[in-house]
Amino acid sequence: MKQDDPVVDRVLRALGDLEPSAGMESRLLARLQAVEAEQASVHSKWWRGRVAWAAIALAVVALSVVGTRHRAVGTASRDVAVKRAVAVSVPQSNAPTVASTAVHAEARSSTRALHAVVVHEAVVEQRAVPATQEASFPAPPLPLTESERLLLQLKHRGDPVQLAQLSQPERNAAEERDRQQVREFFKPAPPPPDAYKDVPPVEVPQVSEKYANPGEAQ
Amino acid sequence: MRMLEGHAQSLAFGDTAVTAGVAIEALVAHYARLLFRVAHSVLRDRAEAEDAVQETFVRVLRKREQLPDVQDMRVWLVRVTWNIAVDRRRKLKPQQALDDAFVATLLSLDQPADEVLSDRRRLGVVMEELERLPEKEKQVLLLAAQEEMTMAEIAAVVGRSESAVRALVFRARARLKERVAEKEARR
What we know:
The structure holds two protein chains of two kinds. By secondary structure, chain A is an all-alpha fold. Helices cover 72% and strands 0% of the residues of chain A. Chain A has nine helices and no strands. The mean pLDDT of chain A is 74. Chain B has helices at residues 2-12, 16-19, 24-43, 46-62, 73-90, 95-106, 113-132, 135-144, 151-158, 162-186. In chain B, helix 3 (24-43) crosses helix 5, helix 6 (95-106) crosses helix 7 and helix 9 (151-158) packs across helix 10. At the A-B interface, helix 1 and helix 2 of A face helix 3, helix 4, helix 6, helix 7 and helix 10 of B.
């Protein structure tokens, strides 16, 4: 067996002593920097996505909390505003002016706008109530409702009998016809025919006094 | 630069405390050449070997947080590079063309043409028989060809004892030379 083969050693030495191309390290570093930048970009995108979702969730929670508080505050402030408006604006003669001024003044914010609307409604209502309680206040001519129109149509259907009553001769003729029908209905019955004159009368059996008058027998 | 050398040297000795603060630039500066030779011994192509080294460092970059757990950075990098090179080689064109290109780089054009042809043929035979070696023998033989790799490191890369690796290297050399001699005798 030939142990010292220069060709084999030459190949192995060539494989072990091979030098890379010039600038390999710089190319590797450039490539690694690009990969690192790409990773950082992906990482920042991931964080941006997380932050965006967190912001959306926070906004939803904030809106729900604000909505809940708005309803609670709105109910309480409405009661307070009604009382204040009734107490303040009714005695004054120029209530609409005061109310409209209050509306424009308090409409700067959404919460104050709600208060202004409530005050305005209370003032209008307070002015309308005494007017409806006046004695000479006439009822307004209201139009007929659908049910009333239907009732009128049922009442005035154009019946011929009713129309005939409007004319005196025809009404007299109709009454005469009615009387004639009554007379014919109640006139006496005609005499029985002669077919039964030869038939002997039937003897009716006599009932004893006991059964004819049961009270007297006792 | 001296600091980097000392830094990488401490990495080679498994100083995990230093590894925690390791910079990729230091790893590239110290291990790129060795890893290139290891990859080239499998691939026999410069461009492919450089791509394999690049892929190795990209993996290192993506697993940077695991670097403190690495006991021996040199062994770990060589093992990663070897596996990458073997994977890449499976996807390459037939090895014959790559071997011919590598053999061409070994020829001396100062010789007469007939000697150049004979030299090319013998080198081709060696490369062919090298590929036909059992996988483990081929691996330890190619790693042993790297002068920077000690037997202990090769043993750590292949996961065997140092004595087993020595035996494998001796057996691989003997088998390769025997097969080359037999093929030469038949011609």
